[in-house]
TrEMBL record, chain A:
Protein name, per record: Mitochondrial import receptor subunit TOM40-1-like
Primary role: Central component of the receptor complex responsible for the recognition and translocation of cytosolically synthesized mitochondrial preproteins. Together with TOM22 functions as the transit peptide receptor at the surface of the mitochondrion outer membrane and facilitates the movement of preproteins into the translocation pore. Directly involved in the pore formation.
Species of origin: Tetracentron sinense (Spur-leaf)
GO terms of biological process kind: monoatomic ion transport; protein import into mitochondrial matrix
Location of the protein in the cell: Mitochondrion outer membrane
Entry annotated with the keyword Mitochondrion: yes
InterPro entries for this protein: Porin_dom_sf, Porin_Euk/Tom40, Tom40
Membrane topology of this protein: Multi-pass membrane protein
Automatic annotation (TrEMBL), chain B:
Primary localization: mitochondrion
Entry's transmembrane regions: 61-78
Protein localization: Mitochondrion outer membrane
Entry similarity comment: Belongs to the Tom22 family.
Protein name stated in the entry: Uncharacterized protein
Organism in which the protein naturally occurs: Tetracentron sinense (Spur-leaf)
Top-level lineage group: Eukaryota
Keywords assigned by UniProt, alphabetized: Membrane, Mitochondrion, Mitochondrion outer membrane, Protein transport, Receptor, Translocation, Transmembrane, Transmembrane helix, Transport
GO CC annotations, alphabetized: mitochondrial outer membrane
Membrane topology, record value: Single-pass membrane protein
Amino acid sequence: MAATVPPPTHVAKENEIKIEEKIDYLNLPCPIPYEEIHREALMSLKPELFEGMRFDFTKGLNQKFSLSHSMFMGPMEVPSQSTETIKIPTSHYEFGANFLDPKLMLFGRILTDGRLNARVKCDLTDNLTLKANAQLTSEPHMSHGMGNFDYKGKDYRAQFQLGNGALFGANYIQSVTPHLSLGGEVFWAGQHRKSGIGFAGRYNSDKMVATGQVASTGMVALSYVQKVSEKVSLASDFMYNYMSRDVTTSFGYDYILRQCRLRGKIDSNGCTAAFLEERLNMGLNFILSAEIDHRKKDYKFGFGLTVGE
Amino acid sequence: MASEGKRGRLSLPGTSGNGDEGIIARVSNTISQSPIVYQGKRAASDAAFVTKKLLKSTGRAAWIAGTTLLILVVPLIIEMDREQQMNELELQQASLLGTPPVAPQK
């Protein structure tokens, strides 16, 4: 066909050459980790919305070691049985210490209300990585710990998870074609006597990312991200839970401009949110967060300042 | 007889008065009780109710749409405008100085 009809433009010619290029199935790229397959969609659709005032300050003591201080003041939602949300004004201070090295990363956070959070990421060998995460609270039965072993192969990734409460999990993701990767997971929670299995697929090209995930817990999650240009991407996702029968769809945009990053989203629950990060100066960011829930009449507005990094 | 006449005489103005009022009342009654007026009244009150509801719901819809646009679109327009201004400024500087701009001017 290509021989009989000459391609009219250079672009078309290039495309044809690309298509005719043989795919080397033994030399596929490494897929991204199983737990991060929704990464692009989550980045656009789930910004860290908050209500109130926050101030974050990070100071590097030397190249590898840095300290962080963060303050938060504002209403906190209290979980309750009634449909109306109850908010209690709170304020807390968080102190953190970070150690960053290419082979070893350590993060520690402690809050004034007694919560302690620790994270470790350590490269044991070139392919094997250990990730650990622990959270300690003053309340009983709320502390938990988790450890992950990640193995990165040439065109696959495997992960083994261990958590407290006899939680075991394993997942595996494999590149099938240069753009498509498929994976699966199994988990077993001994404390709750629950087990599950899940499958996921991800297709990514330069312009778009589409992912789908199903799990035996009844969860179906689909997401689609279209990169309109280098600065702009549009994202949409669809969540369905077979057990609770709730369906949510959301649509969002993500603008990365030179001085700011703006993310906005609207979902089928009547919830609108926007998150603006404005770079005022080198190492000084101003954050504005807004969330409006028309149905619940819940309005959240927040502003913050990030200093350092 | 006299009493009858008296009664009749007495009753006459009353009856005549009643008759006068009766005419007006009858007319007004026929008007007010006519099905056309009744239906017109009902239609008017229904229309008023519907308009009130419609205005209320349009107002609410407009409020929701307005706040949503304020959250989603207004910051986007402002930021895009700023970006464009900055690009123009940079272009101007580049053309004036003839050198690539070092840092974006605020």
